């Protein structure tokens, strides 16, 4: 499965949530509402999740292993930086 499109749908300059992203796989399957978050150790992605119980959240869709998460994160960050630079020009 290959990432065929990454769309940065919303960029926030304020707060910890920096952007909301949609990722398309093989031009056939899309995952919406992946968030780019500014954490203590830099940016990371948070997969779409649903609240369950008292303040607990469970991912609705997520990579199965760290290698896939890293590849996905790298492609998301690359597109995020490109869109961010285009907005600054």
From TrEMBL:
<comment type="function">
    <text>Could be involved in septation.</text>
</comment>
<dbReference type="GO" id="GO:0030435">
    <property type="term" value="P:sporulation resulting in formation of a cellular spore"/>
</dbReference>
<keyword id="KW-0131">Cell cycle</keyword>
<dbReference type="Pfam" id="PF04026">
    <property type="entry name" value="SpoVG"/>
</dbReference>
<comment type="similarity">
    <text>Belongs to the SpoVG family.</text>
</comment>
<dbReference type="InterPro" id="IPR036751">
    <property type="entry name" value="SpoVG_sf"/>
</dbReference>
<protein>
    <recommendedName>
        <fullName>Putative septation protein SpoVG</fullName>
    </recommendedName>
</protein>
<keyword id="KW-0132">Cell division</keyword>
<dbReference type="InterPro" id="IPR007170">
    <property type="entry name" value="SpoVG"/>
</dbReference>
<keyword id="KW-0717">Septation</keyword>
<dbReference type="GO" id="GO:0000917">
    <property type="term" value="P:division septum assembly"/>
</dbReference>
């Amino acid at each position: 499965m290959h990432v065929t499109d990454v769309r940065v749908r919303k960029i926030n300059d304020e707060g910890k949530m920096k952007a909301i992203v949609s990722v398309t796989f093989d031009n056939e399957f899309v995952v919406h509402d992946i968030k780019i978050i500014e954490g203590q150790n830099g940016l990371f992605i948070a997969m779409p999740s649903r609240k369950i119980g008292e303040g607990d959240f469970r991912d609705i869709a997520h990579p199965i292993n760290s290698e896939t998460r890293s590849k996905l994160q790298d492609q998301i960050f690359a597109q995020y930086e490109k869109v961010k630079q285009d907005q600054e020009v």
